[in-house]
Amino acid sequence: MSTDTYATPPIRGPGVLETSTTMTAGTHVHRRISWAAIFGGVILALAIQLVLSLLGAGIGLGTVSTNAGDAPSASSLGIGTGIWWVISSCLAIAAGGYVAAWLAGVEIRFDGVLHGLITWGITTLVTFWLLTSAIGGIIGGGFSALGTVTSAAGSGLSDAARPIAEATGVSPDMLQQQAQAYLQPTNPDPTTMSPQDAQKAVATDLVTYAGGGADAAAAKERIINIMAVQMKISHDEAARNFDEGQAKLKQTRDQAVQTAKDTADASASAASRTSFAGFAVLLLGAVAAAVGGSFAVQRRLQVTQRVVR
Fold it and tell me: Are the C-beta atoms of residues 94 and 292 closer than 8 Å to each other?
């Protein structure tokens, strides 16, 4: 294995030393990565992003003038914010990649690109960590809102699961209800029912009717008889009222189901668009960081060539 040493011509001047590059079997033996330079690029990228974000917020809020009646709409303000965020992110990460590659002192373009990409990766991870941590309560209101929605959803699930948990135990209210059920006749006479007892019987028979099966027809007939007695109408009219009520209930239920489906589809579509937008922004940031690192190497080579001449 041969080792070749190439020395650049000495640069004259106080405090300037000769530098040499050693190549072993065509392989660059110098350190290919400088974490200190990458750390500096990350710090600069985050600082530039913060400065540009504050600048954009100041410009955007400065256009709001409710007294004058010329405040921008929410959609236009949101679009402007998104465009500014993309531009500022690309500028910040490009500057960070440039500084990382420049401070690393690499003279191979691919190494400069890698320094820029690593700077982009660390900056992205740090940004998301800041937005999703306690600091994000100050920096990222959107993520805080997402956490609130998630917490509310979890609370709703907990409230929905509470009756199931209570059903596994025995409470005094449940014992009282069971005792009342024991004292009530199986098929009470509708003519002797009070309005409260009639409502309870109808509610019980509705559950049986909705469950279907062999007892559904009998439950429907009991409900019609109770309606006829309580409302003082004929059996046929009570039957028509029952059928109309069931038709309205089915229509309302179908509309609620369709609304829930439409909402779910809209939410999924919005989440999909947001994911694709985030992917595009991150990809643009990676390209900007790679270009910044490559440009730093190109610039260093140009400076070196001018100094050697």
Answer: yes
Q: Are the C-beta atoms of residues 96 and 48 closer than 8 Å to each other?
A: yes
With tokens 């955007």, the residue in question is 60
Single-letter amino acid, residue 266: A
> Residue 28 pairs with which residues in a beta bridge?
23
Nearest to 88 by CA among 123, 145, 45: 45
Q: Which residue has the tokens 């609620």?
A: 256
The amino acid occupying position 144 is S
Residue boundaries of the structural domains of the chain: 1-60+75-131+289-309, 133-169, 170-267
Beta-bridge partner residues of 25? none
Mean pLDDT to the nearest integer, 59-68: 71
Question: What does the block give as tokens for 285?
Answer: 């940031």
Burial class (CB in 10 A: 0-12, 13-18, 19+), 93: buried
The side-by-side arrangement of strands in the sheet containing 27-28 is: 3-7, 20-24, 27-28
Beta bridge partners of 5: 22
Whether the Cβ atoms of residue 19 and residue 5 lie closer than 8 Å to each other: no
Q: For residue range 82-139, what is the model confidence (pLDDT) as tens digits?
A: 888 889 999 999 999 999 999 988 888 898 999 999 999 999 999 888 878 755 454 4
Q: What value, to the nearest 5°, has the Cα angle with vertex 154 and ends 149 and 158?
A: 145
In the chain, which residue ranges form alpha helices assigned H by DSSP?
35-62, 74-104, 109-132, 136-139, 141-167, 172-183, 195-211, 216-231, 235-308
Model pLDDT for residues 20-38, shown as the tens digit of each residue: 444 444 444 456 788 999 9
C-alpha 7/C-alpha 46 separation (Å) is: 38
Closest Cα partner for 54 from 75, 84, 29, 18? 84
Q: If you count them, how many residues does the chain have?
A: 309
Distance CA 286, CA 88 (A): 13
Is residue 140 helix, strand or coil? coil
CA distance 290 to 296: 10
